[in-house]
Amino acid sequence: MMAEEAAGAVSLQFKEFGMHALAVKNLSKNFGGLRALSRVNLTVAAGERHAIIGPNGAGKSTFFNVITGELQPTKGAVWLHGREVTSLSVYQRANLGLGHTFQRNNLFTGLTVHENVRLAVQHQEGINRHWFKGITAFTAVTESVTGILAQVGLLPQQAIKVGELAYGQQRALELALALATRPKILLFDEPTAGMSPAETADIVRLIQSLPRDLTMMIVEHDMDVIFSLADRITVLHYGQIIRSGSPQEVRQDAQVQAIYLGNS
Ligand SMILES: Nc1ncnc2c1ncn2[C@@H]1O[C@H](COP(=O)(O)OP(=O)(O)OP(=O)(O)O)[C@@H](O)[C@H]1O
Ligand SMILES: [Mg+2]
Q1: Which atom of ligand 1 is nearest to 239's Cα?
Q2: What distance in angstroms lies between residue 154's CA and the mean position of ligand 1's atoms?
Q3: Digit-coded pLDDT (tens) for 39-67
């Protein structure tokens, strides 16, 4: 009886979450007496570009940190591609294809753009155990590095030391390092923060050009950026989801307009 019930529960959970790239169930995170996240339920389909919006302090970064494993939730569960990962480390989740772009300290400013990406690619090859010594491997890594740099538009800068890059280019390099880990899901926390309008337009184009089967979650304050990138938008307010839907639905929602967009 017990075993059957347990099996039933597992298959129900699989049905509920198995097809989603990401699913969170009843996720709460308290900081002392503060409820930064409160009973958040959300599923994100493979290939979806999902934006999380909400006022300052709404819990957006906390949400991301609980998804990556940087923070343990007070309650609830996180699933990646049908597998529960709530007790797994950041590193283990990264190995399951969860990438993120807020790892600024991963840039080696004294090394060149090419060298930075090479280190990330070699690290990844080591993890995948495809790594073998010799010239063939060296060439394969070089091709991989060149491909990623082309993808983020930094091929012309590949011999430049990272410390000499413009700010927007450093952010593009962070994206390159994230892509080197071959993520299936990529989280962006405010990818355009601190950027000029021209740099913002560049990074938006770059994100748009990423493969359609890459699942993305994007926290962003710039509404133009949100509406040009997102297939679906979730609005957080005081740690709770107040609306989740298409950009059109969210834009027209009266509560969202009142609380967040401030449109009258
Ligand atoms: N490590 C922490 N310890 C205590 N409180 C925290 C911690 N991290 C976040 N908070 C609080 O939790 C709430 C949610 O913060 P969070 O950073 O997730 O908001 P956010 O939506 O990302 O805001 P912003 O748009 O300003 O980046 C805030 O009230 C914040 O002060
Ligand atoms: Mg934040």
Answers
A1: 14
A2: 33
A3: 999 999 999 999 999 999 999 999 999 99
